[in-house]
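#struct-pred

JT: dropping the chains for the assembly here, can someone run the whole complex?
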Amino acid sequence: MTADGHQRGAPHIRLEGVELRYGDTLVQRDLDFEIRRGDVFVIMGGSGCGKSTVMRALTGLLEPRAGRILLGEDSLWELPPAGRNELMRRNGVMYQSGALWSSMTLEENICLPLEQYTSLSPRQVRAIAEYKLALVGLAGYGDYYPSEISGGMRKRVGVARAMALDPDTLYFDEPSAGLDPLSARRLDELILELRDSLGTTMVVITHELDSIFTIADDSVFLDAETKTMLATGNPRDLREQSPVPQVRAFLTRGEVDLGGAETASPA
Amino acid sequence: MTAPTAPPTLALRVEDDTATLVLGGRWRLREHLPEVEDAHRLLDEQAPDATRLRFDATELSDWDSGLVTFIAGLGHACAGRSLALDPDGLPEGLRSLLGMAREVPEPTSEGHAMQPTPSFLTRLGSDALDLTQSTGEIITFFGEGAIAVRRLLQGRARFRRTDLWLIVQESGADALPIVGLVSFLVGMILGYIGDQQLAQFGAQIYVADLVGLATVIQMGALITAIVLAGRTGAAFAARIGTMQVNEEIDALRTLGISPMEFLVLPRMLALIAMTPLLAIYADLLGILGGAFVGTVVGGLTLSAYITETRLAIGWNHIIQGLIAATVYGAIVAASGCLRGMQCGRSAAAVGEATTSAVVTAIVFIVIAAAVLTILFDAIGLS
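RK: done, full complex below.
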């Protein structure tokens, strides 16, 4: 059972035949997979395969050209804008760069969603913001501006802001990108701790193998060449058993022979 | 091995149907390297019937990608003249670099490499489509703007009041020095030209009428608007454009907060409120500039100048100026915010958005000035 009373492992988000395009350019098609409640679900694939685009569709920023995205029983893109906004408020998103609002202090960044969508008093809002900052290891940094802290800290504040409204689902866009190994590891641990304590569904976009094997319960592999998903399942199982050579090659850093192509050595 | 400083050399040795290219000296990018055509000339002259090309690199002192490119170019050319290229004589590192370059996959048809230059008709069609899309975006922008204004009137608009006050300060109070300086100088210029012309008829006192009316009806608002377009409109576009690049606007949208309400509305409100106030200030400074010239150059007394100005200017003129300033303020804010919201996701796009915001604002300010002049005349306000 999760903190918000839902059954862990129950279906949470489902994609049915989703096709995504930018203008006329096809990004991904025929996406069919399910994300279970309380899972850490990884969307993986090589650079440029459309991972972030899938996240944009899941978070209500890009309308699919075909197919449906179901959040529980609700079809995200078939709802009127007000209903969609309501559903989106149940999401928290941590962007690759943190995407903190640069004109606001860290505390104000976290307070804004609370001020907009709750009737809490200013004192309560500040207390929650301080707590969320402490949760990501940044207690006492509330008065700093985003430009005054490091990239890794900005990402952690991004997590704190994404958690401001205690969302059902947290999305992470390349959380480890640009971080040193220790900071990346700490962020992975934070993702697992939050999932374990709050039962929040975590959707993580990444191509960092260490991170994938550390955190993922389930995953989908997107392919840039065929522009569709090639596999879904636990990444450790996929590494050992996937019938698709590209998936095993990705998960073993190219140690699998892709039908005659030269085998790349590990980096 | 030749001396390390020896220049790159190229020679050909022929045995039966095999030509051997002898490479010597420093084959580095900073040297004056032989061209692939030089090798061709040697082959044409000394071994036109050769079917195999080998290399002798024993005289080569050092090399870099200059030699790799040369050999790769030679490889392409050899394929065209049925000459088999045998790379065995080349240094091992060079052979592996050549192999790596060959393994790079060709760009797919959906890639962007080597797009042919589009024809005039293609460009015309593409521009027309861009215009249609841009028009659609502008209509959407104003549609969303209208919704935001309705929510504001209903008291449901979501934006931070502190942001509004900050923008009011940045676009209003902080603009006082530059608006004041430019208005004073333009007032002086108007006064000086007026004085020179009117002095011919001994009518210098009418310099006060000329400067006062021109400033209050049009110039004060126009100067304020153009200064704001360059100063505040550009800042709006750059700020919102940078937020677009940093995904800050996506972060607002995913929270269900409309960027139109949160970012655009306070900027529109601030400029619509501030531009008329700045225009009044510009009017006063412009008149002061005219008075400075009228008294110092034209020899008028300050009291006579002020009395004449008060007689010349009516409430109708002041109202015209204020209406114009309000419209110009809305144009500057809308142009800055629109271009910022349309901004792409790169640093170059922010620069383009900023430039475009200023150009759009100035063009529409001038169009609005013309339309308002005709309108005021039609309704008898002038």
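JT: nice. Chain B has a mean pLDDT of 89. The radius of gyration of chain B is 35 Å.
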